[in-house]
Design a protein that fits this description.
The chain has 3 helices and no strands. The protein is an all-alpha fold. The protein has one domain.
Length: about 70
């Protein structure tokens, strides 16, 4: 969690990057106390975020896409 808080400070002047970091923080904060139904929704949100990042930046270097 601290990683994302630190990252948010680093990207505070870049609205698009801040939005991505904020999405990650919301997912983490919600997951901490989530019940099963909420976890299903969060898993879908993580998948949507993964697809969005893949579309924006392409696959990570050194990682074979699924």
């Amino acid at each position: 969690m601290l990683y994302f808080v630190d990252l948010r400070v680093q990207v505070r002047d870049v609205p698009e990057a801040r939005e991505i970091v904020d999405r990650c923080l919301r997912i983490l904060c919600t997951a901490k106390t989530a019940e099963a139904a909420t976890m299903v929704r969060l898993e879908a949100e993580v998948e949507a975020l993964r697809r969005d990042l893949l579309r924006r930046f392409g696959p990570p270097r050194g990682v074979t896409p699924n």
